C-alpha cells in the first residue's frame, strides 16, 4: 500500500465511525505562549480540552503537520542518526471530546491496524499505565481489560509514568495512555530475543506507532490532580512509522515517503544510499530537514536570529553542514529538493506547491549565506590552529566558533581532528552553560493556575462595535517574573482587542465604584482574551466598566485599514504574486512584509502610494461581514493566508468589492477617509524574496510632512531663498569641491616654500646634517610631506621641527637613511621626550615620529630641549 492510500484509509476509517475530518493546523503557532510549533495533533484542540471553546464536532480526525525540535519534545539530535524520529512528521489522530472513551478508542485502533492495514497480530504489543505512587494512581485496569478482548495478556505491558501518563504541560489536562508498538525484526531474530523485552527500549525495529491518550484529569499548578468534568480521547499515530510497518520496511526512510528525496540527493551527490553509514546519515538528515524547513517557511516562519525563526535556521544549517561535510555539497543544494517534496505532497498539503518558488528561493539564500559563514569559520579555525602551541582548541574558542560562526561542536571537532588537534569539550560545555544560565535568568517566570470566579463562560468580544463595556471578571492568573507580579484577567465580555493579525492589543482601564485598574496590554492565549494588569481587583466579583484607550485604537484602526489598501495596491502595481508574509499594525505605523523578488523602483512606490491615497479620497465605506462560511468568503474573492488558522466561519473586510476583500479579525475605520494621508516611509528587504514597506497615516503622516516641509524651509532660508533650491544646493557642493582643490594646491605650494627655507638653514655637523626650526604649516599632512621631502634630499638628515598646525602644537623628528643605520638617534624616543614640553604624547618609528600636544607656548622649549639632546 503506498503512503497516499495509507493516509486516505485512516481518514476514511474514522469518517465511517462518525468523525468529522478537519485540515491540519499550521506548523507555526501564533497565539500559544507555551509552544513555538505544533508538536502533536492535540495542539489545535487545546482549548477544547481546557473548556475554553466548544469543539465543532465531538468526534474529529485528521493528519497534523508536527515539528519536534524545541521545548519538551525535541528529537533534533536523533534525527538522521536513527531511522524513526523526524523533525517534521505527520501525526494521524482521532479525537473524542466528551464523547466515546477507552472502549471504542481501543477497539477501533485494533480494527484499523489488523483488519484494514493487515498488520500481523503477533507482531504487536500494547502498553497500559502501570500506576504511580506519587499521584496515588493505580494500574489502568480498565484499559487492560479492554485490550484483553483482542490480544494475549502477555503482550500487554505495564508502562511507567514517563511513557504511559500523558501531560499537556506542567499543568493542564492529563491522563493515562496506551501505546501500540510493532516489532519489525526478522523471524529468526524474534525467535532469539522476544520482542516484549525490546518495547520502549530504543530499538530501531521495535517502535511505538500509536499512542491513545485518555484524558481524565487536570493537573493543577501545585501538582495535584482533579477529575475533569468530561473525559476525552486524544490519539496520535506516526504516519511515517505506520508506512514503514505496512510496507514491510525497517526504516522510515525506505518508505515511499522519503525515497524520492533520498534518490534525488544520491544522484546529485553521486553517492549510493546504504553504501556507507556516514553518507547515509547525511542523506537522511537532508531528506528529513528539507521537510521541516519548507513547511515552516510555507506556514509563515522565515529563518531568523530569534525564537522560532532561529530554530528553523538551525535545522537548515544542520542539513547544510551534513551535506557540506559528508556529501561534498559546497554550493547551495537543499533548495532543489523543494519541488520534489511539493509534488509529492501536493494533494495533502497544497500550500507548499502553491509557494514552491518562494520557499526554494528563501532556502537558497539561506544556504548561500551559511556556506559563506562556513568558509569564514574555516579560516578562523585555521587561524586558531596556527596560533596553537598545544594540541587542544580551547573551550572559549570552540564556543566562539559556535556562537558567531554557527559552527556546531562536532564540526569543529571533526576539522580539528583532520588537522591533528582535539577540542576542549568540557570547556565548551562550561561556556554553553554560562550562556544558558544567562538566558534562563532573563526568562524564568512562574505561572499560577487560572482561578475561576463563578461559572466558566466564553468571552464575548464587543470591541468591533464599541470601546466601552460593562464587564465581570471570570478568571485570573498570577505571573511572577523577577520578583514582579503581573496579573492576567479574563472577562465575560470585553471591548479590548487582543493582539492578532499583526494589530497590537488594546490598552485602557477597568473601573468600579471603588477602584480603577489599568490594562497595559491584551493578548490571545489560544481562544482566551487575556488582559494584562499590574494590579488585581480588590473585589473579584464587582462589576467594572471597561474602557479602551480611544486614540491609540483609532490610529491602529487607520493603520490596519491602510494595510488592506496597501496590499491591494501592491497586487495591482507589482502583480498577483504579492502575498502577505507578515504585518505589524500599531498606533505609530504599519509594517507590511510581502513576497516580491526585487526592490521596488521609486516609480512603483509612488504608484502604490497614489492608488492608496486615491482610495482614501473616495472615502469608501467599510463593508464588514461577520460569520461568513469560509467557502463563501473565498468566492467573494478573499484570499486565505498561508499559515493562518481559520475557523469554519470567518469575518470578511471589504473596501470596494473590486479592490480589497480580506479575511480579517482586526478593527477597521468606518470609511477610508479616516485614514487621511497615507505615506510610505521605507521600502527594504527582510529576507530573500520578501520585501518590507513601512508607512504612516493620518496624524503621523501629517506630522511627517510638516517636519519635512519645515526642514526644507529652514534650508531655503539658510541659502537666502533661492528660486531653485535644488540647483542652489548643487552649486554649493560644486563650489566647495572646487575650493578644496584650490586649497590643496595652495597648501602644497606653502609646504614647498617652507621646505626651501628649511634647506637654507641646514647645518652640517660631523656625520649629520641638522635642520631644526620652529615653523607653521596648514595641516598634518603637509608636515609629513615636508619631512619626507627633506629626507630624500639629505642622507644624513636629522630634522627636528616644532610646528604650529591650525593653532595647535606638534613635534616632528625625521632621521635620514644613512644616519638611521648608526642607531644613534631614535625618532620615536626623541619625540616622546620632546612632546612633554607641549603637554602631548606620541611616538613612532625609529626614523620618523610625530606628536601633537596642547601647549602651543611650549614650542620654543621643544627646540631648547632638542639642542640638549643632540649634544
Ligand atoms: P518516541 O518515544 O518514539 O519518541 P513519543 O512517545 O515521543 O515517541 P508521542 O508523543 O506519543 O510519541 O507521539 C505519538 C506518535 O507520534 C508516536 O507513537 C510516534 O508514532 C509518532 N512520533 C513521535 N515522535 C516522532 C518523531 N520525532 N518522528 C516521527 N514520528 C514520531
Ligand atoms: Mg519522543
From TrEMBL:
UniProt feature coiled coil, ranges: 729-756
Localization: Cytoplasm
Pfam families reported in the protein's UniProt record: DHHA1, tRNA-synt_2c, tRNA_SAD
Chain positions recorded as Zn(2+) binding sites: 560, 564, 664, 668
Location, primary (coarse class): cytoplasm
Keyword Cytoplasm: yes
Reactions catalysed according to its record: tRNA(Ala) + L-alanine + ATP = L-alanyl-tRNA(Ala) + AMP + diphosphate
EC number: 6.1.1.7
Domain Alanyl-transfer RNA synthetases family profile: 1-707
GO biological process: alanyl-tRNA aminoacylation
Cofactor note: Binds 1 zinc ion per subunit.
GO cellular component assignments: cytoplasm
Superkingdom of this protein's organism: Bacteria
UniProt-recorded Gene Ontology molecular function terms: alanine-tRNA ligase activity; aminoacyl-tRNA deacylase activity; ATP binding; tRNA binding; zinc ion binding
Cofactor or coenzyme needed: Zn(2+)
InterPro entries, A to Z: aa-tRNA-synth_II/BPL/LPL, Ala-tRNA-lgiase_IIc, Ala-tRNA-ligase_IIc_anticod-bd, Ala-tRNA-synth_IIc_core, Ala-tRNA-synth_IIc_N, Ala-tRNA_ligase, Ala_tRNA_ligase_euk/bac, DHHA1_dom
Keyword entries, A-Z: Aminoacyl-tRNA synthetase, ATP-binding, Coiled coil, Cytoplasm, Ligase, Metal-binding, Nucleotide-binding, Protein biosynthesis, RNA-binding, tRNA-binding, Zinc
Domain comment, as recorded: Consists of three domains; the N-terminal catalytic domain, the editing domain and the C-terminal C-Ala domain. The editing domain removes incorrectly charged amino acids, while the C-Ala domain, along with tRNA(Ala), serves as a bridge to cooperatively bring together the editing and aminoacylation centers thus stimulating deacylation of misacylated tRNAs.
Protein family: Belongs to the class-II aminoacyl-tRNA synthetase family.
UniProt function note: Catalyzes the attachment of alanine to tRNA(Ala) in a two-step reaction: alanine is first activated by ATP to form Ala-AMP and then transferred to the acceptor end of tRNA(Ala). Also edits incorrectly charged Ser-tRNA(Ala) and Gly-tRNA(Ala) via its editing domain.
HAMAP family (alphabetical): Ala_tRNA_synth_B (MF_00036_B)
Protein name: Alanine--tRNA ligase
Organism field: Chryseotalea sanaruensis
Gene: alaS
Amino acid at each position: 500500500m503506498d503512503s497516499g492510500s495509507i493516509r486516505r484509509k485512516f481518514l476514511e476509517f474514522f469518517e465511517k465511525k462518525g468523525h468529522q475530518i478537519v485540515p491540519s493546523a499550521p506548523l507555526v503557532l501564533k497565539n500559544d505562549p507555551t509552544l513555538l510549533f505544533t508538536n502533536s495533533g492535540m495542539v489545535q484542540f487545546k482549548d477544547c480540552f481546557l473548556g475554553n471553546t466548544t469543539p465543532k464536532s465531538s468526534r474529529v480526525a485528521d493528519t497534523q503537520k508536527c515539528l519536534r525540535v524545541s521545548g519538551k519534545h525535541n528529537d533534533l539530535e536523533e534525527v538522521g542518526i536513527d531511522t524513526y524520529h523526524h523533525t517534521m512528521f505527520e501525526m494521524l489522530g482521532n479525537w473524542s471530546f466528551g464523547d466515546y472513551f477507552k472502549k471504542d478508542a481501543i477497539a477501533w485502533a485494533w480494527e484499523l491496524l489488523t483488519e484494514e492495514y493487515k498488520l500481523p497480530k503477533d507482531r504487536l504489543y500494547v502498553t497500559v499505565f502501570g500506576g504511580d505512587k506519587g499521584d496515588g494512581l493505580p494500574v489502568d485496569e480498565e484499559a487492560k481489560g479492554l485490550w484483553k478482548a483482542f490480544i494475549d495478556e502477555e503482550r500487554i505491558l505495564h508502562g511507567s509514568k514517563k511513557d504511559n501518563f500523558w501531560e499537556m504541560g506542567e499543568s493542564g489536562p492529563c491522563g493515562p495512555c496506551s501505546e501500540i508498538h510493532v516489532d519489525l525484526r526478522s523471524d529468526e531474530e524474534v525467535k532469539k530475543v522476544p520482542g516484549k523485552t525490546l518495547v520502549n527500549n530504543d530499538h530501531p525495529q521495535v517502535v511505538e506507532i500509536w499512542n491513545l491518550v485518555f484524558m481524565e484529569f487536570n493537573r493543577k499548578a501545585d501538582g495535584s490532580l482533579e477529575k475533569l468534568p468530561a473525559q476525552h480521547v486524544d490519539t496520535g499515530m506516526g504516519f511515517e512509522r505506520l508506512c514503514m510497518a505496512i510496507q514491510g520496511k525497517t526504516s522510515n526512510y525506505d518508505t515511499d515517503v522519503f525515497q524520492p528525496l533520498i534518490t534525488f540527493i544520491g544522484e546529485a551527490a553521486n553517492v549510493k544510499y546504504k553504501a556507507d553509514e556516514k553518507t547515509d546519515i547525511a542523506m537522511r538528515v537532508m531528506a528529513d530537514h528539507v521537510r521541516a524547513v519548507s513547511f515552516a517557511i510555507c506556514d509563515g516562519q522565515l529563518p531568523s536570529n530569534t525564537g522560532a525563526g532561529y530554530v528553523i535556521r538551525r535545522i537548515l544549517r544542520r542539513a547544510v553542514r551534513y551535506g557540506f561535510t559528508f556529501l561534498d555539497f559546497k554550493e547551495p543544494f537543499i533548495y532543489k529538493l523543494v519541488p520534489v517534496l511539493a509534488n509529492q505532497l501536493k494533494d495533502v498539503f497544497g500550500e507548499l506547491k502553491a509557494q514552491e518558488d518562494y520557499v526554494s528561493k528563501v532556502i537558497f539564500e539561506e544556504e548561500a549565506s551559511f556556506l559563506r559563514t562556513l568558509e569564514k569559520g574555516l579560516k578562523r579555525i585555521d587561524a586558531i590552529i596556527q596560533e596553537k602551541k598545544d594540541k587542544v582548541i580551547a573551550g572559549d574558542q570552540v564556543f566562539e566558533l559556535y556562537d558567531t560562526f554557527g559552527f556546531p561542536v562536532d564540526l569543529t571537532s571533526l576539522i580539528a581532528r583532520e588537522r591533528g588537534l582535539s577540542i576542549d569539550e568540557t570547556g565548551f560545555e562550561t561556556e554553553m552553560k554560562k550562556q544558558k544560565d544567562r538566558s534562563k535568568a532573563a526568562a524564568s517566570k512562574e505561572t499560577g493556575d487560572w482561578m475561576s470566579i463563578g461559572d466558566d463562560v466564553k468571552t464575548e468580544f464587543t470591541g468591533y462595535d464599541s470601546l466601552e463595556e460593562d464587564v465581570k471578571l471570570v478568571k485570573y492568573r498570577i505571573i511572577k517574573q523577577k520578583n514582579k507580579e503581573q496579573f492576567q484577567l479574563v472577562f465575560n465580555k470585553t471591548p479590548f482587542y487582543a493582539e492578532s493579525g499583526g494589530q497590537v492589543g488594546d490598552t485602557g482601564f477597568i473601573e468600579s465604584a471603588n477602584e480603577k485598574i489599568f490594562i497595559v496590554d491584551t493578548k490571545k492565549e489560544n481562544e482566551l482574551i487575556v488582559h494584562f494588569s499590574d494590579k488585581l481587583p480588590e473585589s473579584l466579583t464587582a462589576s467594572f466598566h471597561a474602557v479602551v484607550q480611544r486614540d491609540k485604537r483609532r490610529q491602529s484602526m487607520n493603520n490596519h485599514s491602510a494595510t488592506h489598501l496597501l496590499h491591494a495596491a501592491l497586487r495591482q502595481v507589482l502583480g498577483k504574486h504579492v502575498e502577505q508574509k507578515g504585518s505589524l499594525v500599531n498606533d505609530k505605523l504599519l509594517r507590511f512584509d510581502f513576497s516580491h523578488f526585487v526592490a521596488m523602483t521609486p516609480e512603483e512606490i509612488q504608484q502604490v502610494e497614489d492608488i492608496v491615497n486615491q482610495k482614501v479620497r473616495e472615502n469608501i465605506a467599510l463593508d464588514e461581514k461577520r460569520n461568513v462560511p469560509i467557502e463563501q468568503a473565498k468566492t467573494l474573492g478573499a484570499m486565505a493566508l498561508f499559515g493562518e488558522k481559520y475557523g469554519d466561519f470567518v469575518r470578511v473586510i471589504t473596501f470596494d468589492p473590486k479592490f480589497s476583500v480580506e479575511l480579517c479579525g482586526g478593527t477597521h475605520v468606518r470609511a477610508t477617509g479616516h485614514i487621511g494621508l497615507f505615506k510610505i516611509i521605507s521600502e527594504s528587504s527582510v529576507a530573500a524574496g520578501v520585501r518590507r514597506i513601512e508607512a504612516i497615516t493620518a496624524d503621523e503622516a501629517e506630522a511627517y510632512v510638516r517636519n519635512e516641509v519645515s526642514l526644507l524651509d529652514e534650508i531655503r532660508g539658510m541659502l537666502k531663498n533661492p528660486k531653485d533650491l535644488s540647483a542652489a544646493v548643487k552649486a554649493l557642493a560644486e563650489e566647495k569641491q572646487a575650493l578644496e582643490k584650490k586649497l590643496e594646491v595652495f597648501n602644497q605650494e606653502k609646504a614647498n616654500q617652507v621646505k626651501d627655507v628649511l634647506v637654507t638653514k641646514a647645518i652640517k655637523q660631523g656625520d649629520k646634517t641638522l635642520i631644526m626650526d620652529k615653523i607653521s604649516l596648514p595641516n598634518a599632512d603637509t608636515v609629513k610631506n615636508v619631512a619626507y621631502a627633506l629626507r630624500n634630499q639629505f642622507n644624513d638628515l636629522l630634522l627636528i621641527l616644532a610646528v604650529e598646525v591650525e593653532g595647535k602644537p606638534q613635534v616632528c623628528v625625521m632621521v635620514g637613511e644613512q644616519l638611521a643605520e648608526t642607531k644613534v638617534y631614535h625618532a620615536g624616543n626623541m619625540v616622546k621626550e620632546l612632546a612633554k614640553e607641549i603637554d602631548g604624547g606620541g611616538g613612532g618609528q625609529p626614523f620618523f615620529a610625530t606628536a601633537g600636544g596642547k601647549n602651543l607656548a611650549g614650542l620654543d622649549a621643544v627646540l631648547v630641549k632638542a639642542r640638549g639632546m643632540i649634544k
